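Hi everyone, sorry if this is the wrong subforum. Our group has a chain we'd like a structural model of before ordering constructs, and none of us has done structure prediction before. Sequence below.
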Amino acid sequence: MSRGPSNSFRAGLVQMCAGRDVAGNLRDANALIREAASGGADYVQTPETTNLMELDRARLFAAAEPEQANAALQKFSDLARELSIWLHLGSLVVKVSEEKLANRAYVISPAGDVTARYDKIHMFDVDLPNGEKYRESANYEPGSQAVVADLPWGGLGLSICYDLRFPNLYRTLAHEGAVMLAVPAAFTRLTGEAHWVTLLRARAIEAQCFVMAAAQGGLHEHGRETFGHSLIVAPWGEVLAEGGVHPSVIFADIDLSRIADVRSRVPSLRHDKTFDVIHAGNPAAESAS
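Answer:
Right subforum, don't worry. Here is the predicted structure as tokens:
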């Protein structure tokens, strides 16, 4: 299944600038996935919302399909089988009811089988200083389960975009056997410039895992701009590969033997403790007593 030795593989991360046309997005993704495979990638990851970037609710729901009849998922499954790669769809927009969608990741084996699914847990509901507003929960049903996907080389902890800001998720995934973390995303340019690289390096260092984050980048058809800069980070925190703003593929050779070395040098995962929190030194409470 892997073209490399059992403890190492080549990762290829696909950066896109997806738009409103599902067919066009699939063509773009197909070409970039093929480029990644041609570059020797055993594992290929695409960004969040690979099949559709749309803010208008009516258009979004009109274009979304349920998993059971999802043409994009079938095409990508066929492609993974053809190229004999592990294909990780960062997420697809999937209809789960007439009122809600799922922002759902899929891990597909070289046999074309879906081996893991993950629905984005944390919804991006924010008002940014530049006037941009996001209400992801208006259209999407949040997930409730963290997922570690078993790959030939080790456990891959799944997440999507805004999940990146919740470090306990990644710590939990590491305790549950993850040695790699996936953070496919569509970070805004504003928040990406401020936090993207810092947060990804922090998650790698805290969880002592390789982090792989394929991103959307550029000015999208619906008018919003994403940061790009797809990133692969080693467990010691160094950046192994970084993309720019435009559609592209980045590569890194992942040597999982580094995990044991890093975790032995700084055994922080083994030193996790449970504890209580107390509030002390409240003058009003002391005077009242």
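For your construct planning: The chain has seven helices and 16 strands. Confidence is low (pLDDT under 50) at residues 1-5.
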